[in-house]
Amino acid sequence: MTHMRPKLPLHAMNAGDGPHSYVQNSSYQRGVVDVAKPEIEEEIATKLDIKNLPNRFCIADFGCSTGHNSFPAIQIITEAINQKYKSPKITSESLEFSVFFNDVITNDFDTLFRSLPPDIHYHAAAVPGDFHCRLLPEYSLHFAYSSWSLQWLTAVPEAVADSGSPEWNKGEILYSRDRKEVCDAYLDQFEKDIESFLESRAVEMVSEGLMALLVPAVPDFWNPESEYTIPSDVNLLGSCLVDMAEKVTNIPTTISCVK
């Protein structure tokens, strides 16, 4: 019998639009969409080549959260597709877009649909569920998009929590490049997760469809001593958490007995 490590609970981003919501705390992620815009437009113009283009064009955003950063991305995609198929070299009837917004079942889809731009030119639908599994019918999807979502793992590598293992990540919430064993343990889990994602999309997508996947990563040439990037924030957060834990551990305890 094979024993599988339980998956992590699938947590959604903070709901609503208050001060602690994802809407108010995701400007960096929005910047990623803006930076990727020229790349997405170029790939659609040069690589999207669907034979027998249907009137209905289906797009899915896997990991949409409450839509704040998803709506601009969908606008970029739909405008680029319209531009491509309005080229003098290509003739087609007006495309009708269907957009599927996907996230975990606890996601705040209410905020997403309340926030839909009033001038959208597509039909919107929610598809709740884990995107590492099948979510859509076979050969129904023309364009798959995901931004800032695929880096979240479905499970913690068992070895990194085992104090007797070389992969034990003692006192750290981030693995560093000089801890190859820890890095490899997380990489193995990421490979399993991304394989599940791609296998599911392979069944759902039409032939010659296109995917745009924006995934944060640490460049090979990153120098943590002189360059600031995402791990810099995480290292700082980890240091703060360790300090807080030590202070809690060192608090003297007095027990009073009342007769």
From TrEMBL:
Gene3D superfamilies: Vaccinia Virus protein VP39
Source organism, top-level taxon: Eukaryota
Signal peptide range: none
Record-level GO BP terms: methylation
Enzyme class: transferase
Pfam families: Methyltransf_7
GO molecular function: loganate O-methyltransferase activity
InterPro entries on file: MeTrfase_7, SAM-dependent_MTases_sf
EC identifiers of the protein: 2.1.1.50
Keyword Methyltransferase on entry: yes
Keyword Hydrolase: no
UniProt keywords, alphabetically: Methyltransferase, Transferase
Family per record: Belongs to the methyltransferase superfamily. Type-7 methyltransferase family.
PANTHER family assigned to the protein according to its UniProt record, in alphabetical order: S-ADENOSYL-L-METHIONINE:CARBOXYL METHYLTRANSFERASE FAMILY PROTEIN
Protein name: Loganate O-methyltransferase
Species whose genome carries this gene: Handroanthus impetiginosus
